[in-house]
Specification:
Layout (H helix, E strand, L loop, with lengths): L1 H16 L1 H21 L7 H31 L2 H6 L5 H31 L7 H25 L3 H18 L11 H7 L3 H15 L7 H20 L16 H5 L1 H13 L1 H15 L3 E9 L5 E10 L2 E7 L11 E4 L3 E5 L1 E6 L16 H14 L2 E6 L4 H12 L7 E4 L3 E2 L15 H11 E2 L4 H13 L5 E5 L2 E2 L2 E2 L5 H13 L4 E5 L2 H10 L3 E3 L9 H10 L2 E3 L2 H11 L9 H6 L2 H12 L4 H8 L5 H13 L20 H12 L3 H15 L17 E5 L12 E6 L2 E2 L10
Parallel strand pairs: 1-4, 1-5, 6-7, 7-8, 9-10, 9-11, 11-14, 14-15, 15-16
Antiparallel strand pairs: 1-2, 2-3, 5-17, 12-13, 17-18, 18-19
Helix pairs in contact: 1-5, 2-3, 2-5, 3-5, 3-6, 3-7, 3-9, 5-6, 6-9, 6-10, 9-13, 10-12, 17-18, 21-24, 26-27
């Protein structure tokens, strides 16, 4: 140990005297810091975190590959190492001293970057600073070890430079240091998983941006530790004291051996794509961290208030301020101005009743249909249309949980997904009929995912408890016996009561599907949180609306599905020709649905549908009665049913409400604040108020005067990110 410390002292003293070391470790990073700071507008949002990540990783690469890879060769060529040879030391303390010297020299530059980021760009020092510094030290040590391997296998400074250059450039360009790997095509993203600097970038960014710990980055930490150990071991075995000692060209392959931990890690990551997912999430965080000032805009707050001309400041993914009339200059707020004169800004719209497992239409060739890709596109279509949150009111539970995680994490961009999980119904009840169309070998799995058919109260409670552990957002029950041609077994109210009670005991809201006023009466008596559909078959008595208001039960009338059911039964497809529908729906689905609406293959089904007692007009009358009675009304479309295609569902639902006599401002509040309250998310979405998430819709015109303006989508923000709508469907 005495030898090691003596060598370390000498190395540090020489480093302090070496102008090149000082320049490349301290002044050179400063150039990049301010260059990247200007290039990426580091004062904007949390872009400074990206700058710090890039500059510190650049420092690690230079310190390791050039600092160790070049210096050791130069010392051998200048016969410095020959002098050590005559002393009683081995290569081990010499190499360890070089490695530790590099780490010690590097650390002050990191602290300098963090201080500059704080005082120049206003970055908050991360609370997990220890994890950040330890991770950077591990990175510096690993790349220093890699540099020592390069020094060991080359025979001259010229060879060293030739070998270092391609390694350095590959890590610089493909490792996410200068170009985010999310910008690359899929095949190249997989290649980046074999580049060691990739794990430095995602590790540093994760700790800086998301407050991660060393434990959360354990694969990268392990790879860095193994690389350091293997590098020192190999460098020791190949160490040469004198320049006359030559190694054969094949010795350079030892560089590949020290990279083996990253090859193994890259193979795993290319398969699991975990680090690629993390890189996408980190990039999304940066986009959501930008600052915007949407100015000179009409503001529909969502709680009944309207500001005729004001501004909304978005910072770090949230609404930082709402200005009435006068507002500061965007530049003084370090925000990017968005001129919105003549436009209206609203909270992102919410559809509380969709079925992502169903397309809402038909394909001529179902063999090309990909259910997972279709569901992902549907969430993208909602966001494209300004619908920033939807609730799945009955779909395959595992698929919905996967989608919620995929889009909720930010790995993909689309509407926020809430889910009820499977339908609670009776054997032979509504919901079970969809399994009849599947092959027998698929039917069991579908039923297990899509419905629950408890026979006793105890079984019902157990099934609710199991779903609660999966963290569903709500529970849905079904009360409907259907009509001639579409008869269903109605669920035992006693069993459904057990479902409701257990859900409420676990703090889960309950939505109950109803078909007529009798079903509504039972749902009210059970204490549902929302009644889905209400009745399009008969009039709901006034006393039920009084009870709904008293109990705080919401009505989701889903007029869209009642209208579409009737139109499809008569072979009418005008609903497919709306502009936003055409923009978000694939040509194959539009064409296939138009063919199905007039096809002989669906004639018998459409004939039965035409006699089904479902009237959009009756549903509209019940809606207006509910509104006048003070019932909390919310917007749901039942998208996924015939002709109710996913995307601009809320816009059309509101158009139907206004046509029925519900005022535009009431309808808009139902699609924002009311819906958010039903989803129990009103603490963060549903209104334009300080502190809420910046999920916003900007439309041309004034939807309070002409509700059709809701379809004139101008800008969509999702949690502070200005959505590039044209790129949504190109996500990988």
């Amino acid at each position: 140990m005495k030898t090691f410390f003596a060598l370390l002292k000498i190395d540090l003293k020489l480093a302090r005297r070496n102008k090149a070391v000082l320049f490349f470790n301290y002044f050179f990073p400063l150039i990049f810091f301010f260059f990247f700071g200007q290039m990426f507008d580091a004062k904007q949002g949390n872009r400074v975190l990206q700058v710090v990540t890039m500059v510190t990783v650049l420092g690690i690469l230079g310190n390791g590959l050039y600092g160790a890879g070049m210096r050791a060769v130069q010392e051998r060529e200048e016969n410095v190492l020959r002098r050590y040879k005559v002393t009683p030391i081995t290569p081990v303390p010499l190499l360890l001293a070089s490695l530790v010297t590099g780490v010690i020299i590097y650390l002050p530059s990191v602290l300098m970057m963090l201080a500059l980021a704080k005082f120049v760009y206003g970055m908050q020092i991360p609370p997990n600073l220890a994890s950040l510094l330890i991770f950077m030290c591990l990175g510096a040590a690993a790349f220093r070890a890699l540099g020592l391997i390069i020094a060991a296998v080359v025979n001259s400074s010229q060879e060293s430079n030739i070998l270092i250059q391609p390694i350095y450039m590959a890590m610089l360009l493909l490792g996410g240091v200068t170009i985010p790997i999310t910008y690359f095509p899929n095949w190249l993203q997989s290649v980046t998983q074999f580049i060691p600097s990739t794990y430095l970038v995602t590790g540093v960014a994760g700790i800086l941006q998301r407050g991660e710990t060393l434990l959360q980055n354990w694969p990268s930490v392990l790879a860095l530790l193994v690389t350091t150990g293997v590098g020192i071991f190999i460098a020791t075995k190949l160490f040469r004291w004198e320049k006359e000692e030559k190694l054969c060209a094949s010795a350079k392959l030892w560089v590949l051996v020290v990279l083996l931990p990253f090859f193994i890690l890259g193979t795993f990551q290319s398969w699991s794509r975990q680090d690629l997912a993390k890189a996408k999430i980190l990039e999304r965080d940066l986009r959501r961290g930008r600052s915007w000032l949407i100015q000179n805009v009409r503001i529909f707050v969502g709680n009944g208030k309207v500001i005729e001309s004001g501004a909304v400041l978005v910072q770090k993914g949230r609404i930082a301020a709402v200005y009435d009339s006068s507002f500061p200059d965007a530049k003084s707020l370090n925000a990017e101005p968005v001129e919105a004169a003549g436009k209206t800004i609203l909270p992102g719209l919410i559809d509380v009743h969709v079925h992502l497992g169903s397309t809402g239409g038909f394909y001529d060739d179902w063999s090309k249909f990909d259910a997972k890709a279709a569901a992902e596109r549907e969430l993208e279509a909602y966001l494209y249309s300004g619908v920033t949150a939807v609730r799945s009111a009955g779909d395959a539970v595992d698929t919905m949980l996967q989608l919620r995680n995929l889009f909720g994490s930010g790995e993909k961009l689309g509407a926020e997904l809430f889910l009820c999980g499977p339908l609670f119904t009776a054997e032979g009840g509504h919901g079970t009929e969809y399994g009849k169309f599947l092959p027998e070998n698929l039917r069991g799995a579908f039923i297990a995912q899509f419905v629950r058919t408890p026979k006793t109260a105890d079984e019902a409670r157990q099934q609710v408890a199991a779903l609660a552990t999966q963290r569903v957002d709500a529970i849905k029950g079904v009360l409907e016996s259907g009509a001639a041609g579409y008869l269903f077994n109605r669920m035992d109210v006693t069993v459904l009561r057990a479902v409701v009670d257990e859900a409420h005991a676990r703090n889960l809201p309950v939505a109950i599907h109803t078909g007529n006023s009798r079903d509504v009466a039972d749902a009210v008596s059970l204490g549902a949180n929302s009644i889905e559909h209400g009745s399009c078959a008969d009039e709901i008595p006034d006393e039920l609306f009084v009870a709904m208001k008293a109990k705080g039960i919401a009505l989701d009338p889903t007029l869209s599905v009642a209208e579409a059911f009737t139109e499809f039964a008569h072979g009418q497809t005008a609903l497919l020709h709306r502009s936003l529908v055409q923009q978000v729906t694939t040509k194959e689905l539009i064409t296939g649905t138009e063919h199905a609406a007039t096809s002989e293959k669906t004639a018998a089904m459409r004939e039965r549908m035409s006699h089904y007692p479902m009237s959009a007009e009756q549903g509209a009358r019940n809606l207006t009665k509910a509104w006048r009675a003070g019932v909390n009304i919310v917007t749901g479309s039942d998208a996924g049913n015939f002709l109710v295609l996913h995307g601009p569902t809320v816009q059309h639902e509101i158009e139907l409400w206004v046509a029925a006599g519900v005022p535009a401002e009431v309808s808009l509040q139902a699609a924002t604040a009311n819906a958010a309250k039903l989803l129990r998310a009103d603490d963060r979405i549903g209104t334009i108020e300080k502190g809420k998430e910046a999920s916003l819709l900007v439309v041309d015109g004034n939807p309070l005067q002409d509700v059709r303006a809701l379809s004139a989508v101008s800008i969509v923000f999702m949690k502070g990110e200005r959505v590039a709508r044209d790129d949504l469907f190109e996500q990988k």
